[in-house]
Amino acid sequence: MLGLLKKLFFWNYERNTWQWDVLCVVILIFIFLTPKSWFENGERPCRIEHQNAAVSTVLVGAELVENAEDKPRIQQLVRSMTNCTKVEVLQVRTVTGVNGKPTGYEVDIR
Description:
- The protein is an alpha+beta fold.
- It has two domains: 38 residues, no CATH class; 54 residues.
- It contains three helices and three strands, in the order H-H-E-H-E-E.
C-alpha cells in the first residue's frame, strides 16, 4: 500500500499506462469542478489604476441616486463600485435623456 501511495505521490507511472490516464483525469476533474470561492481571498483590488493620477469619470445610474446634490451618497456608491476607500468626488454632472429626465450622473473622481 505504501508503494502505491509513493508511486502516486511521485508520479512514477509511465505515460502509456492506464494509471497515467486516471491521474490526468483526476487532475482535470479537480481543475474544472473546484469552486471558484476556494481560490478567492475576499480582497478585491481597487479598480482605479492610479489613485493620485488624473481625474477619472464614472457613470452612476439615476435609479441609485435621488439627486446630484447628494454627494455623500454618490461618494458611497462610487467607493463601493470601485472598491477604493480613498475615492474623492470632485464634480457631478447630470445626464438627461430625450424626455428631459435624468438618466444618470457623470461623476469625476480622484
